[in-house]
Design brief:
mainly beta, Virus Head Decoration Protein, Chain: A, 8 strands
Length: 137
């Protein structure tokens, strides 16, 4: 039996249908864009304008949208489910910077291209499974 240990929860008003164990945006809608910023994980199903409990920190269950390895950093897919974050890489033709004394900014902007919401505590072989995730908050 999989267990959860949420540390903090909030109540939001659902903006549209939200699935149990799916990722929820700050406006109460289920995540619908891959890699978007999320508030947490829905503890139960909710219909439009219903109150929904959202776990925002701790160890929780999350529905998977793809195969996941234990320890993977996780982001949302377009269905509000967990998928592995993309690995950062240096584009072809670009020189990797390996010095802390490099001139100029290396990264600019406030947010990375994907919002990593947690880390997989166990593996999943594919979509539609529940995995324990340590939320990053």
């Amino acid at each position: 039996m999989k267990t959860t240990h949420p540390f903090n929860t909030i109540t939001l008003i659902a903006s549209g249908a939200v699935g149990e164990y799916c990722l929820v945006r700050f406006d109460g809608a289920q995540a619908s864009t891959a890699g978007e910023k999320v508030a947490g994980v829905a503890r139960f199903n909710a219909g439009n304008l219903e109150a929904i409990t959202v776990d925002v920190s701790g160890i929780v269950l999350v529905k998977t949208g793809a195969a996941i390895a234990q320890g993977d950093s996780l982001v949302s897919d377009a269905n509000g489910q967990a998928i592995p974050a993309l690995a950062l890489a240096v584009d072809a033709g670009v020189t990797a910077v390996g010095s802390t004394a490099a001139n100029g900014p290396i990264l600019v902007g406030g947010d990375l291209p994907e919002f990593v919401f947690g880390d997989a505590m166990e593996a999943a072989s594919g979509a539609g499974q529940l995995v324990q995730v340590l939320l990053r908050r």
